[in-house]
Amino acid sequence: MSTSSVSATSSSNILTQDDFLQLMVSQLTQQDPLNPTSNTEFASQLAQYSALEQNKQISSGISNLNSSQALSQAQAMLGETVTLKSGDSTITGIVQGVQVVDGTPKINVDGTLYNVSDVTGITLVTNNANAATINI
What we know:
A hairpin with a 2-residue loop joins strand 1 and strand 2 (about 90-100). The longest helix has about 40 residues, at about 40-75. Helices cover about 40% and strands about 30% of the residues. Strands 4-3-2-1-5-6 form a six-stranded antiparallel sheet. The termini are far apart. It contains two helices and six strands. It has a domain at about 75-135: SH3 type barrels, CATH 2.30.30. By secondary structure, the protein is of the alpha+beta class.
């Protein structure tokens, strides 16, 4: 009887979908022909694989939604006066642009890029006489 091994592909020893399929194929090819895997057990394994695939797609969708939402938040700040925390200092300036760096939207204030999460307040100017400040 031969044995096969499947190694985890990540450094944290988490099995991937490919590892799961390799284990399942290995189990099928090496099973005892006089005592094969039951249909119920095989169906259970297929259901687990299907659930894994669905979870991966949901996770990807949520990640895309979060990225879109962060970009929308950054775009909504264009032209607004923001107050943000950078290290130990507080900076106030007008958002002059939005740039995506490594998949993360950043706002450009006075020529420097900041994370949207650094913003602590936004001053909305409706006209020259009225201004509203939103503290976050």
